[in-house]
Amino acid sequence: MRVAVFGARSYDRKFLTAANAAFGHDLHFLEAGLNADTAPLAADCGAVCVFVNDRLDRGVLERLKALGVGLIALRCAGFNNVDLAAADALGLPVVRVPAYSPHAVSEFTIALLLALDRKIHRAWSRTRENNFALDGLVGRNLHGRVAGVVGTGKIGALVARALHAGFGCEVLASDLVEDAELKALGVRYVPRETLLRESDIVTLHCPLTPDTHHLIDAAVLKAARPGLMLVNTSRGGLIDTGALIEALKRGNVGGVALDVYEQEADLFFRDLSGTIVQDDVFQRLLTFPNVLVTGHQAFLTEEALSAIAETTLASIADAENGRPLANRVTAERIR
Ligand code: NAI
Questions:
Q1: Same domain, 93 and 29
Q2: Does the beta carbon of 175 lie inside 6 Å of ligand 1?
Q3: If pLDDT is split at 50, 70 and 90, which confidence band does 333 have?
Q4: In principle, which of 1, 233, 254, 255 could form an S-S bond with 227, CB 3.0–4.6 Å?
């Protein structure tokens, strides 16, 4: 099948091309992300392959349908950027990669937490200038601290295990469903408000839904423990960034590590180093010494990219051959 691969970066081309040897699709790599203006680039394609920040609202979906596109293949797990109700109504199936490597994201989460806590990012830039002074680099042990994991699905469960068994944290968890194995290990499920109030470390691993939008807001940050360490490798919209900046300015927050950002669609996945970034909120975030930001990188391992490519291309082959779509998401299925 001819497939328009929007927002294709060097690593997408490499891993999709390698995996495509087993499928033989006609992959049409496009630098541009998918939006209303770029949708016509999918003309003559049976499927579009898109990523987290491509915007698939009703208008874009209608355009794709009119062009003859018959499948939306997300090369990611999250699908909050797709109007699923509109896709269902148009008869446009949407497939995703439900699990490619939860280890990639959970390991990156722990890496961010350790770097933030022990100020590795600051030490790295100091030593490059032969500054070996340790003042200002005092961290805290993870051992014995209370870590709250919001969302104990595939990624959150691995993070909870690492924090509990690996580092000796007391782990609190909040989820709509409780994981019996985690409970048996000693992870304690508590209401979300309790977790956010009683944790020294909070790490977010739930999807972005109306219920989780801005789950970290001004009230939560006011009630949180002084010196809170906050890590978000899930979705930017889980945090009210304005409220976070105010809390950081008050000195209430110990540190924040973000791999995702509410308005990241206008920033991430490209080199803007020679441009003037217009997002003042994001620029303010970068000025805090205790804020560490990466550009939606948690998934980026060889293992994850191979798995993403294989699952995505297999779903496209299933659609082409009229087979059931195991990785389909519909508005009904997430309700
Ligand atoms: P998952 O579906 O296995 O787990 C999500 C968990 O969140 C489930 O246990 C679900 O019950 C829970 N949940 C749903 N609503 C909740 C709520 N209101 N409160 C608390 N828990 C709630 O998903 P997985 O694979 O663990 O991914 C988690 C998130 O990580 C994804 O939603 C995605 O946004 C993000 N992600 C980020 C990546 C990155 O590169 N930064 C890569 C992959 C995923």
A1: yes
A2: yes
A3: low
A4: 254
Report d(CA 247, CA 226) in Å as an integer.
10
Whether 96 and 202 map to the same domain: the answer is no
Q: What is the pLDDT of residue 335?
A: 42
Residues 111-119, mean pLDDT to the nearest whole number: 98
Helix (H) or strand (E) holding 3: strand 2-5
Active site residue ranges: 235, 264, 296
**Residue 102 Cβ contacting ligand 1 at under 6 Å:** yes
pTM: 0.93
Q: Report the separation in Å between the CA atom of 239 and the middle of ligand 1, taken as the mean of its atom positions.
A: 14
User: Could you tell me the CATH number of the domain that includes residue 210?
Assistant: 3.40.50.720
Orientation angle between helical segments 302-320 and 10-19, nearest 10 degrees: 60
Report the nearest atom of ligand 1 relative to the CA of 152: 9
Please indicate, yes or no, whether residues 289 and 309 belong to a single structural domain of this protein. Answer: no
Query: In angstroms, what is the span from residue 211 Cα to ligand 1's centroid?
Result: 13
